[in-house]
Amino acid sequence: MLFLSLAGLLLPHTAAADLAADIRQTLALRVVPAHMPPTPDYGCRSGYLPATTRQGSLSNLSNQIIQSNRSNQIIQSNRSNQNNQITQNTPPLPSIGVMDDLTFGGLPVFAGGLIAKSHKQAFRQDYDNPHQQARLVRSYSSSVDNYLQYFGPVATIGLKAAGVEGRSDWGRLLASSAMSYGVMAVFVNGLKYTVKEPRPDHSTHNSWPSGHTATSFAGATILHKEYGLTRSPWYSVAGYGVATATGIMRLLNNRHWVSDILAGAGIGIMSAELGYALSDLIFGQRGLLRDNLHDLDDLELHPSFFSIGMGVGFGVPELCFGQDSDADMPLTFKSGASTVVDVEGAYFFCRNVGVGGRVRLKSQPVNGLDDMADANHLLTLDSRFMTEFIASGGLYAAFPLTDRLSLGTKALVGRSVTQSALLTAALPRVADPVIPTAGQPAEWDYLDLSGGSAASLGTGLSLAYGYRQSLAWRVYCDMDYARRTYTMRYNTSGTAPDAHQLSLRKARLQWVVGAAFSVAF
C-alpha cells in the first residue's frame, strides 16, 4: 500500500489506477491449482499476460477439463459394458431344489410290475418244453445283459473323466451315486428274499424283482440327471434305451418274468431319484456345476420321445373251430382282456412329422382251459395264455395343443408272432400207476392252441403332457389289426390215431388303452 501511495504521488491518477489493476490481475492469475500447467512467458513483464492471452489460457483450461470429464465418462462406459458382457457370458449359478428333479416316474412302472405278476406265465421262454411254439423267441442265449447293466455309471464316469461338465462335481456325483445304489440294494434284496418268487428256469427262488434291470435303470437315471437334464436329452434316451434292452435280454434268457423286469425298472428309477434327493439335502447348493436346461418340458419344441408303457387290450374275437364228433373237448374258445406291455419311440425331423417304432407284448388269456384241467386230474395246464409279440415301425405325427400338451397319432406296419397256449396230459404217478396201453406215452401234449405269425397294422391316438424337464406322461388308445391262421392240435390218448389238427383263419381287431412314462427330446 505504501508503494501505491507513493505511485499516486508521482504518477497521474489514471496511470496509478491502471497499474494497480494490472497487479491485482497478475496476482489472481498466479494463484492457480497445482495441477494446472505453468504460465508461459510472452516476453512481457514478469507474470503479466495480455488480455487476449489470458482469455485464451482460460479457454484452453476449460477445454482440458471438459475433455477430461468426457474421457472419464468413456472409460466408465467401457467398464460398464465389459461388466455387462461378462455377466451375460457367465452362466447363472445352479439353483436346484430337493423336489425339482423328483418325478415319481418309477411308481407307475413298479405298479405295472405288480399287476403283471398275476399274469407272469403269459410271458415266458419255457425252454424245458420241446415245442418251439411254446417260446416267445424260438432260440436265444446271451450273456451281454450281465455287462450292459453297468452302462449308465460307466458312461457317466467316462464323460466326467473326459472333461464333459455335468450336474455335479466329483464329490457330489460319487455321493449321489452311492446313495442311489444303496437304496436300490435295500429295496431289491429286501423284496427278493421276502417274496421268494421262483425263476422261470427254476434255478432259484429270488426272481422278483430283477436286480439286473434295477441296476440298469438306476444307472440310466443317474446319467439322465447328470447329463440328460443339463446338456442334452439324447443322453437320457441312450441310458433308458440300453436299460430297456437289458430288461428284455433278461426275459429272453429265461431268467425273469416280465413282472420282474417292470418292478426292477420302477425300483431303479425311484432309487436314483431318492439318492439324489438325499444328496440335495446334504450338499445344498455345494458341488453343483450346471443348472438344468430350460424348455425341455415344451413338447412343441421337443416332440420326439422314448416311452415304456402298459395297458389293457379289448375286442379279441371268439375262436370257433367247428364240429368234431370224436372230440372230447370244447372246440370254441373265448378270450379275456389282454395285459399289454409297450416300448415305443419316435424321432421327429420337424415339429409335426417323424418316424419311429414299437415293440408290444400281449398276454391273452384263453378261458375254459382251467376248467378242463380241474375236471381231469390227468391234465396239467402249462399256460392258459396265448401271448402275442408285435414289432412294427412307421410314421408318427404330433399336433401341439399347448407348450406342454400334445396330441399324437401314427401309422405302423410290422410282424406279429404268437406263443401257444398249452395243455399237457400225464398218467398219474401213484404207488400203483396205470399201465399205459401199447404206444401210449407216459406224458404228452393234450391241447396246443396257437396263432402262428402274420403281418400287423397299427394306429392310434395319444395325449402327452410334459410335466417335468425332459419327462412326460402319455395316455394312448391304439388299434391293432392282423389276419392270421389259428391252429388247434389235440390228442386225447397220446397215440397217433387220436391226434387231430383244426385250423381257422380269422381277422383280429383289438383295442389297447394304456399309459406310458416318456423321455422327451
Q: Would you kindly provide a written description of the structure presented here, covering whatever features stand out?
A:
By secondary structure, the protein is α+β, with helices and mostly antiparallel strands. The protein is built from eleven helices and 13 strands. Strands 1-4-5-7-8-11-12-13 form an eight-stranded antiparallel β-barrel. The radius of gyration is 42 Å and the shape is globular.
Which helices and strands appear, and what pairs or packs with what?
Blueprint: H1 2-10, H2 13-30, H3 51-89, H4 106-117, H5 145-148, H6 151-161, H7 170-195, H8 211-228, H9 233-252, H10 258-283, E1 305-314, E2 319-320, E3 332-335, E4 338-348, E5 353-367, H11 369-375, E6 379-383, E7 385-400, E8 405-418, E9 421-426, E10 443-450, E11 453-468, E12 471-491, E13 499-520
Antiparallel strand pairs: 1-4, 1-13, 2-3, 3-5, 4-5, 5-7, 6-9, 7-8, 8-11, 9-10, 10-12, 11-12, 12-13
Helix pairs in contact: 4-10, 6-8, 7-8, 7-10, 8-9, 8-10, 9-10
